[in-house]
Automatic annotation (TrEMBL):
Residues 14-95, 164-253 form the Cysteine-rich domain. It comes from the Bacteria. It comes from Pseudocalidococcus azoricus BACA0444. Gene3D superfamilies: 1.20.1050.140, 3.40.50.11810. GO terms for molecular function: oxidoreductase activity. Pfam families: CCG (PF02754). This is CoB--CoM heterodisulfide reductase iron-sulfur subunit B family protein. Keywords: Oxidoreductase.
Amino acid sequence: MTVMTTPTVVTLRYAYYPGCVAQGACRELHLSTLSLAQALGIELIELKQASCCGSGTFKENSWLLEDTVNARNIALAEDLNLPLLTHCSTCQGVIGHVDERLKEMQTSQPDYVAQINGLLQEQGCSPYRGATEVKHILWALVGDLGLEVLAQKVTRALTGLRCASFYGCYLLRAQKTLPFDNPIHPQSLENVFRAVGATVVDYDGRTQCCGWPLSSYATAESFAMAGSRLKAAIAAGADCIVTPCPLCHLNLDSRQPEIERAIGERLNLPILHLPQLVALALGVSPDELGLGKHIVSTKPVLAKLGLL
């Protein structure tokens, strides 16, 4: 007699680190991440006591400061016995790099890690143990959920939508080991596009800098850099750029009108957050994803998908 068994359903659970920008200037990223998680059956436990990662600036004053602040963020996830999940390329790069370094230093420089844990103890915080992972939502989709499962969950294929990726510097280059991808010739975003039925647009600039780090002190150069990326995507036939980095989104979307004035050209290219794109394919409404909150209208994207 054959005994039928019910497949075990594994629920993905993460300690959710929303970061600063998604709770402020890009609130739609936070909302769309929550909607995407719900649509995929992913459980997110928000780390409400977490602090800013520093965006890579803390180490300009003190490596110890950057390491201690982010060791605390990681320890909050360790307290839950969960991976730390972020949807920000910059947060991934900073916190992931700290985690990578401290795991190595547990063997090579244990006194340094002990110093960090002493500082955490003074503040009543749990020690850093190096017992979890720091994981961008892109890696969670590709590596934990899997592209085949993602494709099976699509209810509204994004057929005909031409998507250009924009990875962001920190996601590709901040860590020694890049999971699920190649830092020089990445394909994880493009593979997600294919899984949700969109068309991949290749163009020069998808792995380069958007110019955000220059924007506070070299605005003209920042705008010129961002403008060149946008123009290259437009020339390649993109309907939109999709980015896993809210800082890239700020520079390419929020400042696009200023970029247009600086370079003397009309651009009007919508910039989507990665969770927005994927959640659209899972049937989530554009309003729930905050697609009306962008500076550059996303209506051309929605019209192409028959959602207007």
